[in-house]
Amino acid sequence: MTDGVWQVRAADYANMTIVRGDTGWIVIAPLSVAETSAAALKLVCDHLGDRPVSAILVTHSHADHYGGLQGVIADPSAPPPIYVPEGFEEAVASEGALGEVPMLRRSIYQFGGLLRFGPEGMVDGGVGKTLARGRATFATPTEHISETGEERVIDGVRFTFLMASGTEAPAEFAFYLPDHRVLCMAEVCNRTFHNLLPPRGAEMRDGRLWARTIDKAVEMFADDAEIVINVHNWPTFGNVELTRYLIER
After folding, report:
1. Which 3 state secondary structure label does DSSP give 230?
2. Which residues make Cβ contacts (< 8 Å) with residue 96, sequence separation at least 6?
3. How do 236-237 and 25-28 pair as beta strands?
4. Quick one: how many helices (H) and strands (E) in the chain?
5. CA-CA distance, 67 to 222, in Å (whole number)?
6. Which domains occur in the chain, in start order?
7. How confident is the model at residue 126 (pLDDT cuts 50, 70, 90)?
8. d(CA 137, CA 119)
9. By C-alpha distance, which of 149, 137, 169 is closest to 216?
């Protein structure tokens, strides 16, 4: 997308973003299952150079963005730093453990998981082709982001964070890469009209807070950013275009 920032799309329901750090690859949102995240990382290493994973960022507490964690961790006994939003573990336990069985059953209706592929069955899932099948995994986070405006230098790359918890997910952050002029809106923005009450039974989203969070992103980053990316769908290039994209969400 720009020098030092790439995305792997269509390997999974979600996107995996890669940033070149000083010592290795910074992986952002490592997909749904270990098989797809490992394949995405192999694609990156095959085409861009074989480097270790130096850090992982999980933007929010939905399994299609953390289930592939073990696929990008070479040594589970010595994982790289894993950055998550404050409250991430509690949100994962609530939706991914306590509510797992009813939510999985209801997600069949939301995503059409039992339909055959075809014009009268499963076409795609809106923000991606279909949910990946494989080994959903987890790894214990090591770093928590809790404040809007918080700045971190991760493997030599500057990040500025925007908290978005309570919008699209109970625990979520967006971030800006000032040296690359890339804004990642996580799943606060994408190419569809988002659910405020997901049919699968996830928590009700706060529409007013959601809108205010997008407004805050415009206030903090729109004057400088040149590219906006999401953890689903495709990026938007150009300052005028991305500002319009954010405002129209």
Report:
1. coil
2. 61, 63
3. unpaired
4. 5, 12
5. 31
6. 5-248 (3.60.15.30)
7. confident
8. 33
9. 149
